[in-house]
Amino acid sequence: MSLPPVAATGTGRGFLADPPYPGIFGWIFSTDHKRIGLMYLWCIVAFFCVGVVLGLLIRLELWAPGRTIMDAQSYNAVFTLHGVIMIFLFIIPGIPAAFGNLVMPIQIGARDVAFPRLNLFSWWLYISGAALAVTALFTGGGPPDTGWTFYVPFSARTSTNVSLATIAVFILGFSSILTGVNFVTTIHRLRAEGMTWTRIPLFTWSLYATAWIQILATPVLGITVALLFAERVIGTGLFDPAQGGDPIMFQHLFWIYSHPAVYIMVLPGMGVVSDIIPVFARKPAFGYKAIVVSSLAIAFAGSLVWAHHMYTSGMSDLAVMIFSFLTFIVAIPSAIKVFNWLATMYQGSILLDPPLLFALSFILLFTIGGLTGLVLGSAATDVHVHDTYFVVGHFHFTMFGGTGMAFFAAMHYWLPKIYGRMYDKTVATVAWGVIFVGFCITYLSMKIVGLMGMPRRYWDYLPEFTGLNQLSTAGSWILAIGLVLMFVNLIRGVLYGPPCGDNPWGGASLEWQVASPPPTENFEQDPVVTHGPYDFKKAGIL
Amino acid sequence: MTKDHSHIIPYRTFILVWLALLVLTAITVAVAQVNLGALNVWVALGIATLKAGLVVAVFMHMQYETPLFKLALLAALAILAIFIGMTFLDVLYR
Amino acid sequence: MSVHVHKDYTGAKFGMWLFLFTEVLLFGGLFILYSVYLARYPKEFISAGSQLNIWFGGGNTLVLLTSSLFVAVSITALRRGATRLCLGLLGGTVGCAAIFMVNKFFEWSAKIHHGIYPGSMHLKEMRPGEMVFFNIYYLTTGLHGLHVVIGAIVLAWTMVFIKTGRVHAGDWVILENAGLYWHLVDLIWIFIFPLYYLILH
Q1: What dotted CATH number matches C21-197?
Q2: C76 to B5: CB separation less than 8 angstroms, yes or no
Q3: How far apart, in Å, are the Cα atoms of A22 and each of A18, A29, A124, A181?
Q4: Which CATH number among 1.20.210.10, 3.50.50.60, 3.20.20.30, 1.20.1250.20 corresponds to the domain A14-114+192-209+259-513?
Q5: Which of A156, A376, A495, C84 is the most buried (most CB within 10 A)?
Q6: Could you report the per-residue pLDDT of A259-269, keeping only the tens digit for each?
Q7: What pTM does this model have?
Q8: What is the distance in angstroms between the Cα of A320 and the nearest Cα belonging to chain B?
Q9: Which of B2, B22, B79 faces C62 most closely, judged by CB atoms?
């Protein structure tokens, strides 16, 4: 069977016009990494939107002290659901499952991942876990109200459907694990001839580091939620003092995964930024090796600091001090990346296209988030701000201002490659601006009101916090408008936009050397690589 | 077609390792009867590690694999050791 | 559309090893808990541990070690063309799995009959450290038992593949990977046995 002709202007439809089966089966039974990546992408975007709506509801409730639109029980369920959806259904799979699948095999010159059927199975696990999580909303005792961290003893005793939620989380974790196994094997075994370790794009390197965390940390989450399930359903009391157990052990096990998990979230985002900056500065990446080493260092060091979430839990002073010290260490490799990105741009020819705008937002907002992380990492100051809105502000700056922006950057960078069509760049720029302004208003307010002492996860608050809460809520509406604008523009672009050609941005990595959309087999012949991913001169661009 | 990457391990090797495992099991049971106080757990773990090493190296073929496999296994075990060890920074010093 | 038949034997094995690491970390979480509670309740772990039956534990150890031998030898047998021997050995492995689960059934039944199980009244009357010991004993050996069953199913499936010729002397990575999984099941028990059955002092 011959592939549809792919013109240089990319008007052919590549893999999109080459389904393995008719209709929806061509998607849900396809083992093509690009189709799987797209399925992940649109499911993830859909769940992101649900999460946004929940966030808007939280902000609406917090418009004024006391009850505004819902009672306290509902509020607890809403913020729990917001966290669970955003973390397990959006951010953790986010960039790796969607863009890792879409782009990584092409970047290394492969035809697919090492285990394509396992890849499809990962997606099915994701959907199953998501379906179970949704089912937990309407069954049992109703939606969990414990916060996404499911701390005992409350999570072991609450009548809400924590049990089903833990099964959902277990399945979602399994999906993440299998993706990690697939990606590590793929990157080791399927690189094209000439694609040495020092010619791999930094995005793929970031996926490699991330995949190791997925493999080594996620199982601990698995056992933790399984133990919580056992605590509830079988009555084992490993976390119950009445049975000799220790509730702090739940926190240890939980954060042993969930801290490295934030690096699962942010490393791919950093990888996206590392790939985008050189292209839009028309300069090779500065400090390629430093960025690689720092990615691996973050992955490793990130597994040494989990108990900085537990300074006030009652654990030993020695642990508090050591984990605090180590937390400062893990900031160093992140800073190294920021310096390298800035050095890449220095004296470059800057093209302020939407991918770069979102990438630059990542750098600024993640840095701010990271700096507030130091306030939290320092045990003495953390005692004052633990469980306040300062923490909420911090992690929204890092996860949303960081990974979220990187996810948007990746969409603006790679969707034209996948669909062969370009969105309206002016509208994208306006949307970016609105998002950026809305984001800052929403979350900076939180940091201030947190410093003033407003606790998190409280349905009510003291009257003196009202002004900043209202400012934050207003910000959330601006943010939402920007998001809607952005998504509408992107979707219109991929459906109706003008053909954009194989290489609309002038990238030098392999995905830009194939047609847009890429053909099913990615390459007509297995490529032979002769230069690095940012060598614009040798790639014949520039 | 799977290429023959590794030599075929003879039956004899497996049987010898199995016998060693049985002996080590007997030893660990015997030592457990003796009161060595806190040392009992460490000796038991040590023997278990030896048994595990034999299973990994011979039954699971690890001694014939490339350094990559060995490094990866080391990484996984090191991470587990770190998780256990650093938890004790809390538990032992409350 | 061309179908690539080139198979990556090393890659398939590497992927299996990566998956085994996840299993190690899964049980690792239970070992973290065990080590913490052993340090906290040394005497109660001894008194509770002494109530476990060393014959069931030791017997199951021997069964699993032997099953690992069978599975390892089965690979050599297949690669040397002794397919019937291979299938016999794999059948033996599955048989060992069955013996293991039968042992476990009797062991657990005895304990449950004495009122020792998670959530039981009798358990609640024990000292805290003893409660913890039995709770974590059931969870760990239960999770392990589940993996024994999974491993046996995987091996049985592999036997079908061998019979249908999909796995053979020229392409045996599926058997090798199934074997790796089974050895992991054995490895976990190698640590469970001393930690639960040999805590006598």
Answers
A1: 1.20.120.80
A2: no
A3: 10, 10, 19, 30
A4: 1.20.210.10
A5: A156
A6: 999 999 999 99
A7: 0.95
A8: 8
A9: B22
